[in-house]
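User: structure tokens for DUF4340 domain-containing protein, please.
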Amino acid sequence: MQLGRKGWNNVVIFSMLLMIFFFNGLHTKLNSGPEEARVQSVLPDQSFILALEFPDQKIERIGTSWRAIALIDNAPLSQWQATTVNLVELINQWQNMQLSVAEEQPTFHNTTALTVATVWLAGEQLPWLYQLYRAPQGYYLLDKSNQRVLLLDQQTAQRLFPSFNFIHSEPKSNA
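Assistant: Done. Predicted tokens:
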């Protein structure tokens, strides 16, 4: 079986395509080093927060500033002082926070979340839901939108959930 000029051209074209696909995928395999501790942003990159809601209060953007609204009737805005500076710092914490992803995915079937944060982002139809759970050494933050579990310590949890009372949520020791 002999190939004509058109046949050899087709063989060369398909060979080149195969080489392109092979080399295109090969560089990702060669450049990938050992996998480090995976650290990810809590919110998507370049996201823009429109509102942030906790069980006791809602923080929303009004023009270029922020305001906090108590969600529980006849209740103060908690011990955390919702000043303009604190609101901007809290929003910046949520937008810039990077946490490590839990290697073992814990199950949360029979556990109740300590507190919840709902984040409305610009360009998103549905809000992003984050639930805070207790971990053996710190806390878990369950991202319901992406089904990922992030690890955080108590100081970081207090920065993200400033109105939550971490003192009353500590387990009681039997002494």
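User: Anything notable?

Assistant: The longest strand covers residues 128-135.
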